[in-house]
């Protein structure tokens, strides 16, 4: 009789193990399977592969191998990358509540944790409405003469220099337009000190985030403090003058929520620095790429010149300012801008984080994983844009298929500054090609 236990016990243990395996398998299935892909080395994941080559090569080769949804691990974070228009829409639009914006803490500290793009929910939508109304076409059309003035003075200052760094100069131009849209006509001493400190923040943004005296990151944090002080001074002055203004600062100062609460100085400063940050590099890179694409296609440049020269003559060679109607009626120049946005895909991808376990097309995106819609892969997919590597503005004579063209993102966090960005680019190009010639040297 005792011997029988020798058989029963192992059989029981085996049965128990089997039940566990079945249960855990069932549990796994009910959560869906992870997308295909490789997680690379422990912790490091595939960070080295991503950073040791052109990131576009990394994303494209992954898409070729695994398809439009794949997993990887970057900088210690498990990620799911999505390269289809449907998947981008799922994350950014239809299921946006399941994904929150995510940025490294060090970057949040530099920009300011109350800046709208770090948030979602009520706070985000209140601030977003303010930003949107400050950059509505009806608001920004009033800025045209001032933007023209900024464009012309930048161009005239270059005319005396044998060579300029296009991107750096475009950054100065975009910064000045940003300051105009935020503060209206600001005293030049304020402008200079804002510029000085903002440039230090900008330098520190991509440095190693070590806050020891002497490091770029530390200097950036100090400059960030200064920026807040300057913004507070400007606010005090404005309050003393009791001036009601319709620029972005005016909108921020006039805001009251449903409980009658106004924004704190901290929230105002963070959002001002946030908007400057979102506006400057993006617009400057776009302009830089446009100049390069036009320079590489002299026939196209001549056609753009002809379009702009007609307006230049209509305005008696700059005696009259550009009108809003004219800026809305530059079809070829507009197509050059959108094709440049597609080709260069300045914001190649964005980041979100899953706030719950999410199932997409039978795949599991676990809670806490980063999710990256890959705009560039979509913009360069021959399924949506034929011969995607060829710069061809005429492709925009027909509207792209829905959700295939997202240079300004999509959904609740889509770019509220897109009209201002396009307006300043059009104005800049008008004055550049009407008055000047340029030669582009790649470095
Ligand atoms: C060519 C120029 C620009 C490009 C390509 C661009 C692109 C984008 C993209 C792709 C997003 C969405 C990011 C995401 O979903 O994570 C975004 C957001 C944003 N952009 Fe732009 N942008 C440009 C210019 C501007 C300008 C001029 C402004 C301000 C005047 C601006 C202000 C913002 C802000 C505040 C957000 C965050 C919106 C939110 O979180 O609700 N951008 N931009």
TrEMBL record:
Belongs to the cytochrome P450 family. It is a single-pass membrane protein. It is found in: Membrane. GO terms for molecular function: (+)-abscisic acid 8'-hydroxylase activity; heme binding; iron ion binding. The chain crosses the membrane at residues 6-23. Keywords: Heme, Iron, Membrane, Metal-binding, Monooxygenase, Oxidoreductase, Stress response, Transmembrane, Transmembrane helix. The gene is CYP707A4. Heme binds at residue 415. Its EC number is 1.14.14.137. It catalyses: 2-cis-(+)-abscisate + reduced [NADPH--hemoprotein reductase] + O2 = (+)-8'-hydroxyabscisate + oxidized [NADPH--hemoprotein reductase] + H2O + H(+). GO terms for cellular component: membrane. Pathway: Plant hormone degradation; abscisic acid degradation. The keyword Phosphoprotein does not apply. Its cofactor is heme. Coiled coil: none annotated. This is (+)-abscisic acid 8'-hydroxylase. Its main location: membrane.
